[in-house]
Amino acid sequence: MDEQHARGNQRRRRDPIPLWGRRYRHEVLELDPDKRVLWQVVDGPQEWIGTTVSFDLRQEGDWTIILFKHQGWKEPVEFMHHCSTKWGVFLISLKSLLETGKGAPAPNDIKLDSWE
Fold first, then answer.
1. CA 59 to CA 34: how far, in whole Å?
2. In the chain, which end has fewer C-beta atoms inside a 10 angstrom radius, N or C?
3. What CATH code is carried by the domain that includes residue 29?
4. How many whole angstroms separate alpha carbon 36 and alpha carbon 64?
């Protein structure tokens, strides 16, 4: 699938994405295969709406480096700190999936607190 076709399919996609037992809706703002994806949250927890989530990728020798950001929070609420740590759990699971073929997606992920 070429980049333009992938981008068009993603922009039209409005199905909720389940993360940690909740449903979020993202719109893909940028898609550069093997380099970058940028989402904007359009539905979900109030604190998330309008925030952006980006994954920037680059190769360094045998390593793939992922630079992750979840930004645009209106204020630094407690939920933001929880999510910051939870994204780390998600990325560790993704690393395991890519390296071993087995990740730990919800509901089998690491639980951090009573919000889950």
1. 9
2. N
3. 3.30.530.20
4. 12
- What is the distance between the alpha carbons of residues 33 and 19, in angstroms, rounded to a whole number? 22
Number of neighbours of residue 72 by Cβ within 10 angstroms: 13
As for how many domains the chain has, the answer is 1
* Tens-place pLDDT, residues 56-101: 999 999 999 999 999 999 999 998 988 899 899 999 999 999 999 9
Range of the domain at 20: 3-100
Tell me phi and psi for residue 34, to 5 degrees: 70, 5
pTM given for the model: 0.76
Mapped onto helix, strand or coil, the DSSP state of residue 111 is coil
Rg (CA), the chain: 15
Report, as an integer, the average pLDDT of 10-33. 70
Which residue(s) pair with 32 in the sheet? 36
Q: Which of 15, 11, 6 is nearest to 34 (CA)?
A: 6
